[in-house]
Amino acid sequence: MPNQTPKLPRPDPRTNHFLARLDQEDYAELMSVAKIVPLKFRKRMLRQDEVIDAVYFPITCMFSLLVTNDGAPQMEMATIGNEGMVGASEALQMQGAIGLNLIQLPGTAVRIDANVFRQVSGNRMAMQRLIHQLVYALLRQVLYGAACNRIHSMEERCARWLLMTHDRAGQDTFPLTQEFLSHMLGVRRATVNVATGMLKKAGFIRYVRGQLTILDRAGLESASCDCYRAIVKVYEPLRPETPKAQG
Q1: What's the Cα-to-Cα distance from 128 to each of 5, 51, 88, 202, rounded to whole Å?
Q2: Contact, 238 vs 134, CB < 8 A?
Q3: Digit-coded pLDDT (tens) for 211-231
Q4: How far apart are CA 30 and CA 233, in angstroms?
């Protein structure tokens, strides 16, 4: 009998915090029109100002939201992992994407056609409230990031960005190139090399052939500014409640 590749377990959509916080009826209705799709590293998804064709709820992947100029990525404004959603607010308002959404960490996401999502969520007030809460949290993340880029050192900014990526990666090693990181931080590659070099010298990270590994999480947190903890605090109220153990 020929060897067969074992099937990987189906990702749980409720790993996404938005989907996990829906009541059973809303969740079932949304998932009846959804697909779980794989998304590849650096794939360009929703493009700035273009009409939204689909809404995404990350499960194991991570999006970067970048501002662009003449179609070229300029700087990252926010990261979105399984705590959030991509395109939902624009789909409801029938507006173009607020930025370029790029896959920063490959993985899976729940995908729903934008028109279908608008129809399903249009009369579901609880779902719309969750969307508004996440939009507010995303706005707070953008504001903290903008302030951070202005007042903190490149080493602190780099540590903050790596911590946020580590939170969403679910593992200590993830793909990352110096060129990609320079786009994320809006600086030249030489500047990124200096910042990552300092973090490597301190023993906090290892970087080999486009793969970055977090070696010392506590050390990396000590190198970051307070913006990282402030952003984490913004999203804490939006985490789904952990079921209580049955005694």
Answers
A1: 41, 20, 10, 45
A2: yes
A3: 999 999 999 999 999 999 999
A4: 28
* CATH 2.60.120.10 domain locations along the chain: 13-149
- Token couple for 117: 């999502």
Give the residue-averaged pLDDT of 34-38. Answer: 96
Q: Does domain 13-149 have CATH number 3.40.980.20?
A: no
- Closest by Cα among 205, 167, 142 to 60: 167
Identify the bridge partners of residue 66 per DSSP, sorted by sequence position: 76, 100
Location of each CATH 1.10.10.10 domain in the chain: 153-233
From CA 24, how far away is CA 182, in angstroms rounded? 42
Structure tokens, 49: 């100002």
| Element at 88 (helix H, strand E) | helix 88-93
User: Domain 153-233 is of which CATH architecture?
Assistant: Orthogonal Bundle (1.10)
Tokens of 126: 């609880």
149 vs 87, more confident: 87
Distance separating alpha carbons of residues 238 and 18, to the nearest angstrom: 8
- Positions of E strands within the chain: 35-39, 54-58, 62-69, 72-80, 100-105, 107-113, 173-175, 205-208, 211-214
Instruction: Determine the 3-state secondary structure of 2 from DSSP.
Output: coil
